[in-house]
Amino acid sequence: MVIESSPDxxxxxxxxxxxxxxxxxxxxxxxxxxxxxxxEKDSQPVEAAALAEAKPTGSPGxxxxxxxxxxxxxxxxxxxSWILFFNTWGILNTFGVYQTYYEGGSLFQASSSDIAWIGxxxxxxxxxxxxxxxxxxxxxxxxxxxxxxxxxxxxxxxMLSLCHTFWQALLAQGFVIGIGAxxxxxxxxxxxxxxxxxxxxxxxxxxxSGSSTGGIIYPIMFYKLINEIGFxxxxxxxxxxxxxxxxxxxxxxxxxxxxxxxxxVIDLSAFTDGPFMLFVLGCGVGFIGLYVGIFYLxxxxxxxxxxxxxxxxxxxxxxxxxxxxxxxxxxWLSDKIGPLxxxxxxxxxxGIVLLCNIAVHNVGGIVxxxxxxxxxxxxxxxxxxVLFVGLTKDKSKVGTRIGMGFALVGCGVLAGxxxxxxxxxxxxxANSDLDWTGTWVFGGVCAIAAGVILMALRCWRVGxxxxxxx
Length: 470
Fold this sequence. Notes:
This is Major facilitator superfamily (MFS) profile domain-containing protein. Keywords: Membrane, Transmembrane, Transmembrane helix. The chain is mostly helical. It has one domain (72-462): Growth Hormone, Chain: A (Up-down Bundle), CATH 1.20.1250.20. It contains 20 helices and two strands. The chain has helices at residues 11-18, 46-53, 72-86, 89-92, 95-103, 112-132, 134-138, 142-160, 166-190, 192-195, 200-228, 230-245, 247-252, 274-304, 309-337, 340-356, 363-382, 384-390, 398-424, 436-462, and strands at 3-4, 55-56. It has a two-stranded antiparallel ribbon. The chain is globular. Residues 1-62 have low confidence and may be disordered.
């Protein structure tokens, strides 16, 4: 998707957006240049620049023209994107219950690290596929991406229901569902800036909350169904549920403008863009810690005996319930004070909460840490797309940069789950031998390191000023 500034924004409106914003409401003689990757000052603050210029090129006539920024059709796109997030990241956020179920050995025998590869591959396939299929979206194949992606998600569930070995589950759940979800993720994200230029952070936050809602509903369904009708039919019903829901985006989502040219899969200039690469590094390191928590908090409760088997499964929907608020309220706040001012403290808090698990020894403690982890992890998941836009000066490269950024961040996803599993079972696979302290230190330190990197990025761009929107 190609994104650049549009001539339909009135001059007076542009003038308002170009003024630097300070949190105390005072004016300033210094203009921020976060969207610039060289010494030239760009007079737009990050959020204003990202939102004012995040418009696709194409014909100015119908169905193009000014960005609607509201109305029935625009909010239907938010609904459609919400359902796509529900059935992409919502499914991925469910993997904690699969990790706990597979650890029991009733379906196949595998180590914690091996099992984590299934969820990690699933997430990486989503991110890599999203980067590769971006040009198909730019060519106008919006509906084909929805159809093929929906088929992949549903077909993957049907194949998973027939699995009895680790490698079968890896192929069906890791690769097939992951690739299908990646095809759906592109339309879910790419269509939003074509309908919203103002309050884009809020619109994306509402859409992204679908992943948290899916992470609440799907784990509960999975736990109830496997106890009532077994793993096979339980997973099939999850697949049928996804099939019914994915009809809605096909019915309501419309590509408003077709990009003027097809994006490149790789933008080599990104590798010399210091702020962009520093942000990618911060996200990648942060996702290592993030996925330690997502994969192992449920199993932690069961393996240590802090919770019974039932509550351990419910920890995943509890986590995702906290994430609903973490993906919406901070996104609204980011429109006010700037996304970098929100995501950096969020990364620190993710690390602190993970380290707090070392001292957890009762049900109340684990529930509190799970809720807090869900909230702060929601910040770290929902805001990167907004910052990828803001850190790209040439808006015609936004689509490529988002795809590249998420693909590189996928390295952190690969390291988080399997790395945490390897540390967890380094002394043995029996519950009494599991090294939970080492696992939480690994995840917590990585998340805190991400916070340090993001704060370094903030200092790079605006120095040590506190009351600046960035």
